[in-house]
Amino acid sequence: MLAFLPGKRKQSSSGWISFNAPCCVHNGNTPDRRGRGGIKLSDPGWSYHCFNCGYTASFILGRNIGFKARRLLEWIGVPENDINQINLESMRHRSMEGMIEDRQRVWNSLAPIEFAETDLPNFVDFVTPAQAEHWAYLRNRHVPEDYPVMVSATNTTRPGVVVPFTYNNQVVGSTIRFLDDRNPRYINDMPRGYVFGIDLQQAGWQHVIVTEGIFDALCISGLAVMHNEISDDQARLIRSLGRNVVVVPDQDAAGVALIDRAVELGWSVSVPNWPEGVKDINDAVKLWGKLTTLLTIMQSSESSRIKIELRKKQLVKRLRA
């Protein structure tokens, strides 16, 4: 649109671009020679006001171009085909953004999110350096030392740790992670719609990182959905934080499904170009530490559906190699 504005124009510090208003001669006034027309761009649209004849118009991406906005575009010389193309692209934007907004309104109208308090499974004591095997395992997984993890007493033949699931600082579930690599590695007691790590979030944070595994979340203070899917209930809980969501899938075949779900929800996706052998956040933290891992995640974050699809194809190609 700016390309069609009169050449003689100036921009104020508040963002208004002033030029000779094209609307005056069409509204029974003399041609403007004093730069009384003004347009201000915004995200996602623009507003116009003439301080001579009083004509106003506006446009917001995701809506049809209104009668007054269309007339203004015609008066400044925008071809009809270009106007129709703008309108078409706006409706395409609405088709995706509108669905996301409609779903958000439905979720917001639902009852408050609550989980029932529950008891932890049998445990011996909190993990301390005295429990050398359990302590070493947690330090290797970069679990913060102040997070309360217990020594499991559920299966005496297989040493394990109990990680509590909390919500609003109440225990609502847990997982037992056995220290060996035999299956099953985990025994989960998780309420429907629960997302681990909500209580790890702090006021003022602008972003939240969503991953699959509990140790991925613990080592970077993120969220874990505990599998490669995100249910509607989990999505609602994550959205309730009101932050920019960045989904980081495991770099394996199962992680591809999480990318598709993130795109469906309108969230950003990060697939960092980690070296071979680093398939998830916890692996990356073991190699580089928390800060560097977070930097690689945020630098690789994409919100464009096209760019996310490209990163997914690159991941699939790398997995097949």
Structure description:
With 321 residues, the protein is of the alpha+beta class. The protein folds into three domains: 2-108, no CATH class; 116-191; 192-321, Dna Topoisomerase Vi A Subunit, Chain: A, domain 2 (3-Layer(aba) Sandwich), CATH 3.40.1360.10. It is built from nine helices and 15 strands. 26% of the residues are buried. The mean pLDDT is 89.
* C-alpha Rg (nearest Å): 27 Å
Structural class: alpha+beta
Please, what is the average pLDDT? 89
Sheet of most strands = 5 strands, antiparallel
Overall number of domains: 3
Write a short abstract of this structure.
The protein has nine helices and 15 strands. The protein is an alpha+beta fold. The protein folds into three domains: 2-108, no CATH class; 116-191; 192-321, Dna Topoisomerase Vi A Subunit, Chain: A, domain 2, CATH 3.40.1360.10.
